[in-house]
Amino acid sequence: MEPLILDGKKVADDIKERLQTRVGELKNQGISPCLATILVGDDPSSETYVKMKGNACERLGILSKRIHLPKETTTEELLDTIYQLNQDSTVHGILLQHPVPSHIDERAAFESIAIEKDVDGVTSLGFGQTTFGFGDFPSCTPAAIIEIINYYNVELEGKHAVVIGRSPILGKPVSMMLLNRNATVTTCHSYTENLPEMIKSADIVVAAVGKPNFIKGEWLKEGAVVLDAGYNKGNIGDVEYETCFEKASAITPVPGGVGPVTISMLLKQTVDSAEKMGVSVK
Ligand code: NAP
């Protein structure tokens, strides 16, 4: 039997439709939700990602304050820009596009984002809150994966979820979010021995490796649910789609899976923040 396609575009459209009403209500109160994006340098992929996020905001009536800093920007200058945005009551969310040029202390920059504006979920405080299970703004890609799981009623309780990847913005937080939803979670990484065997025992597989076509169909248990967060050059996921399609009971495509939902979660968390702050922009 063919697997259920977990259609991220459908999930994203559903989120955006609900957001439209909320943005309209905020505007009636004189509040314009606003996301500030900071791009440092001229990496073409980063430029594209920031542009996509800004455009997605504007399509929904969310203001997009786009800050583009030169590649020579120092850590201090970047921290100063973030500090000013933290103080600016017309800004409800701050997104610093990763990666920044290597001479900048990226962690220090992320940490300087005020927690109430950390709508991209990049601070260690935000991660701690997500782990404890009470944070407002989890990292957007993990939040998107949970959103897809909820939308399609994928059962988590007592199920074995295997996450491949342990990055601070993806593998680790999604592991914690699955654990908080009563899955039994194994987090794998580049030192994991017998990865195919680990994956063979998974009811749910989350791929967050950053390597095209890395997860093979023959590694899957029959009927596993596969969520592919990977996004590699040429629109290729971390999962070998054709072979995994044969074994999975449900699978996210790339593109059109986790990606569009990630952007919608960013928009949602910006609107959440604007509602919480309730600061007026006329
Ligand atoms: P990352 O920081 O490079 O982390 C990759 C993780 O994969 C690391 O934990 C690494 O282990 C692990 N890994 C690498 N090789 C492995 C192997 N052979 N076996 C097992 N684990 C291995 O990447 P990321 O930022 O988390 O992103 C992962 C993927 O998600 C990328 O394709 C990225 O483009 C995509 N992504 C998509 C979205 C979206 O909106 N859809 C957002 C963010 C990222 P170690 O820790 O041991 O090095």
Automatic annotation (TrEMBL):
Pathway the protein takes part in: One-carbon metabolism; tetrahydrofolate interconversion
UniProt entry tagged with the keyword Hydrolase: yes
Catalytic activity: (6R)-5,10-methenyltetrahydrofolate + H2O = (6R)-10-formyltetrahydrofolate + H(+); (6R)-5,10-methylene-5,6,7,8-tetrahydrofolate + NADP(+) = (6R)-5,10-methenyltetrahydrofolate + NADPH
Entry keyword Glycosyltransferase: no
Binding-site list for NADP(+): 165-167
Entry keywords, A to Z: Amino-acid biosynthesis, Histidine biosynthesis, Hydrolase, Methionine biosynthesis, Multifunctional enzyme, NADP, One-carbon metabolism, Oxidoreductase, Purine biosynthesis
Molecular function terms, GO-annotated: methenyltetrahydrofolate cyclohydrolase activity; methylenetetrahydrofolate dehydrogenase (NADP+) activity
Pfam families: THF_DHG_CYH (PF00763), THF_DHG_CYH_C (PF02882)
Domain Tetrahydrofolate dehydrogenase/cyclohydrolase catalytic: 6-120
Annotated SUPFAM superfamilies: Aminoacid dehydrogenase-like, N-terminal domain, NAD(P)-binding Rossmann-fold domains
Enzyme Commission number(s) from the entry: 1.5.1.5, 3.5.4.9
Entry superkingdom: Bacteria
Tetrahydrofolate dehydrogenase/cyclohydrolase NAD(P)-binding domain boundaries: 139-276
HAMAP family: THF_DHG_CYH
Family statement: Belongs to the tetrahydrofolate dehydrogenase/cyclohydrolase family.
Biological role stated in the UniProt entry: Catalyzes the oxidation of 5,10-methylenetetrahydrofolate to 5,10-methenyltetrahydrofolate and then the hydrolysis of 5,10-methenyltetrahydrofolate to 10-formyltetrahydrofolate.
PANTHER family: C-1-TETRAHYDROFOLATE SYNTHASE, CYTOPLASMIC, C-1-TETRAHYDROFOLATE SYNTHASE, CYTOPLASMIC-RELATED
Record's subunit section: Homodimer.
Name of the featured protein: Bifunctional protein FolD
